[in-house]
Amino acid sequence: MRRDRFAPDPETIARLKELSGLNDNDVQKVAELGRLVHLPDSWSLILETTPADAAYYILEGEVSVRRGGEEVATLGPGTFIGEAAIMNHSIRSAAVVTKTEVTALNFTPESGRELVAAVPSIGEAIAEADAERTADNAGE
Fold first, then answer.
1. In what order do the strands lie in the sheet with 80-81?
2. Rounded to whole angstroms, how far apart are CA atoms 119 and 93?
3. In this predicted model, what pLDDT tens digit does every residue of 24-38 receive, in sequence order?
């Protein structure tokens, strides 16, 4: 995994704004708190049943979400992953492995919580996504 300081270059800022629908001030806050990471194909970035240490916002590429080794979802650009566990201080409920090369913003538990406090719409979107995933998991 290559990890760069996230210098909010115009191209990445434009991509983030396009995917997220956030206003300029909120995009800037995301840029300040996230770290840009470039992940190779087949990289395990989240391990099932482990403590939460990071969340990611996918800018480019696709990831496979797996439970018990079985793929349950494929997620791509514009998706937060791992956010529920860092917000709830919980154990990971699934593994996440890159299916392609992925460019993402990485958030620590601290920066993730700071982001939700600074940009309420992100907190609302995370809560909605978490509720949908919980409902989907209950229906399995």
1. 2-4, 35-39, 102-107, 55-60, 80-81
2. 25
3. 888 888 888 888 899
CB 48, CB 94: distance < 8 Å = yes
Helix or strand (DSSP H, E) at 138 = helix 120-138
CATH at 18: 2.60.120.10
| Cβ neighbours of residue 61 closer than 8 Å, sequence gap 6 or more | 39, 76, 77, 98, 99, 100, 101, 102, 103, 104
pTM of the predicted model as reported, rounded to 2 decimal places: 0.83
Residues of the chain with pLDDT below 70 are 1-10, 133-140
CB-based contact 110:86 (threshold 8 Å)? no
Enclosing domain of residue 130: 2-138
